């Protein structure tokens, strides 16, 4: 699962339906080995057709809510402000943009 900090941050930044979909996607991604739109759509427990689930995930991940300014920079700022001085923090950031086709 994800830490409480992320729950609070994401529930504040995302709409309620997108927040719930985010939690579902995180659970699915943690349980599968191959992370593709098709494998996530297959495992996502939603009562809609496969193609509709795949398109919903694709649209969801392309939304402006996931922008660097909206989600990630405030989170990094919070971490920076709440970590005690002289503590080591490991932050992994992928330099590649995620392309969804």
Q: What value does the Rg take, in angstroms?
A: 15 Å
**Helical content (DSSP H or I, runs of 4+):** 55-70%
Which percent band covers the strand fraction? under 5%
Poorly predicted parts = none
Describe it.
By secondary structure, this protein is mainly α. The protein has one domain. The chain has helices at 4-13, 16-31, 37-43, 50-62, 68-82. Helix 3 packs across helix 4 (50-62).
What does this entry show, briefly?
By secondary structure, the chain is mainly α.
Give a topology summary.
Layout: H1 4-13, H2 16-31, H3 37-43, H4 50-62, H5 68-82
Helix pairs in contact: 3-4
Which characteristics define this entry?
elongated, 101 residues, mainly alpha, 0% strand
